[in-house]
Specification:
alpha+beta, 171 residues, 20% strand, 27% helix, 6 strands
């Protein structure tokens, strides 16, 4: 490269710093307010819907994943939604059962037996993200294992017939 050649670099647009907020106003300002309260455990109480006979949320994880059980989906306008349950809430206790020691199937069984729920949860997106990444990796691993089995199965059952060209016409 010659000394005369310029290297072109693309930089992101400049972002101006946030405006200065006087110290006495920082407690109530959203850019400065501490939102650590969202990570504290909380208790929610709700019942199955009378129309659908469901609680309105899905769970993911379990003891077998060593990361706990998490809320993976909350249906809008469900009882779970109305009491503030949200995706990435780690489920700690349900109706006296310690969910941190249950595998997924045991947790589902406890939930299916209940009509009303008193649930202790805490918002923990970091553990939930890790669980989702683990699930994706496990799925890729399973897909690859299925592929390997398919290749192995089909490589031993080779068909020794000639390949025919279906586009050509024979008379």
């Amino acid at each position: 490269m010659d000394e005369d050649e310029a290297i072109q670099v693309s930089l992101p647009p400049y972002e101006f710093p946030p405006p200065w907020i006087p110290p006495e106003q920082r407690c109530s300002h959203p850019d400065y307010a501490s939102t650590l309260n969202q990570f504290l455990s909380r208790t929610v109480r709700f019942a199955r819907s009378r129309q659908t006979n469901q609680f309105g949320f899905h769970i993911k994880g379990g003891k077998e994943h060593e990361l706990g059980l998490y809320v993976s989906r909350v249906m809008q306008d469900s009882n779970a939604y109305r009491v503030g349950l949200r995706v990435a809430d780690k489920i700690l206790v349900v109706n006296g059962y310690n969910f941190e020691t249950l595998d997924h199937d045991e947790a589902v069984s406890v939930l299916k037996e209940a009509r009303d729920i008193e649930m202790q949860v805490k918002y923990f997106p970091y553990g939930y993200d890790k669980l989702c990444r683990m699930s994706e990796l496990q799925q890729k691993r399973l897909d690859y294992q299925e592929y390997e089995e398919y290749v192995k199965k089909n490589s031993t059952n080779k068909i020794n017939s000639p390949v025919r060209d279906s586009t050509s016409t024979h008379s």
